[in-house]
Every structure is written in C-alpha cells, then in structure tokens.
Design a protein that fits this description.
The chain is built from six helices and no strands. By secondary structure, it is mostly helical.
C-alpha cells in the first residue's frame, strides 16, 4: 500500500487532504482484505499495520486525535501479530517501535502526557530488543 501512501502525500501537497485520507483508508481496506485471505501471513499483517500507521500519522498531523489513536492502536496490534509469527524479524520490530513513537505523539496531543512517556518507553524497549538480538542497525 506504499503507492497509496505516496498518493496521499501528493494530495497533501496539492492541498487536498480529503483525497489523501481516502487514499489511506483505501490502503487499510485492501490490507484488511489481504489479511482476511491469509490471516497467518506476517507480511500481510505488517502491511495492515503500515496502512493503519499511515492513517494514524495523517490523522495526528490534522489533530484528529481519536482517529489517530484508533488507527495507531490497530497498527500496533497488526504488527504485534506479525511478530508473533516471525519473532526475530528486525523490520517488524522497527515498525512496532515506530508505532509506539506515533502513539506517544498522539497521547501528548490529547494531553495524556504520562501515557506518552509510557509509549516512548515501550518504543525504546523495542529498539533495545534489536540490539539484544545481536542486530546493530
């Protein structure tokens, strides 16, 4: 759904946020359909997480905190499921840490500063797992 994300960015630059939102929502819809076809595919779950993450970041940028929060948590859930299937995948681990960072931004935007700190602590813990696993990038 990378193409949908690029299209959303192009729409944003053109001042067309509604079209950008629609593109990101379409990415989530397609990703959900792929997961429905194969719910045990870590790649499809990661794609779903990435799609929700893009929608979450877009919503946060537009201070649509409830949508950002819902999509951000859906991203964490999907990527967490991908990690259950492939626990040693470095890419998925990085994605999850990034999702927690986004959730921290959302929590801060909603005035939930303690939660923001907790999310950032989770993100740094996930990054630390990369090093604990012997990965250095």
């Amino acid at each position: 759904m990378k193409t949908h994300g690029h299209l959303a960015q192009a729409y944003e630059r053109l001042g067309r946020p509604e079209n950008a939102r629609e593109s990101l929502q379409q990415a989530v819809l397609i990703s959900n359909q792929l997961v429905a076809i194969n719910p045990h595919s870590a790649d499809f779950l990661s794609l779903l997480g990435t799609s929700h993450g893009g929608l979450s970041a877009f919503a946060a940028q537009h201070q649509e905190w409830d949508t950002a929060d819902t999509s951000g948590h859906a991203a964490v859930e999907a990527i967490g499921r991908a990690l259950e299937i492939q626990p040693d995948d470095v890419f998925y681990r990085r994605q999850l840490a990034g999702c927690y960072s986004t959730l921290a931004t959302i929590a801060a935007g909603k005035g939930r500063h303690n939660e923001a700190v907790e999310q950032l602590e989770q993100a740094t813990a996930d990054y630390q797992r990369l090093f604990d696993d012997g990965t250095d990038d």
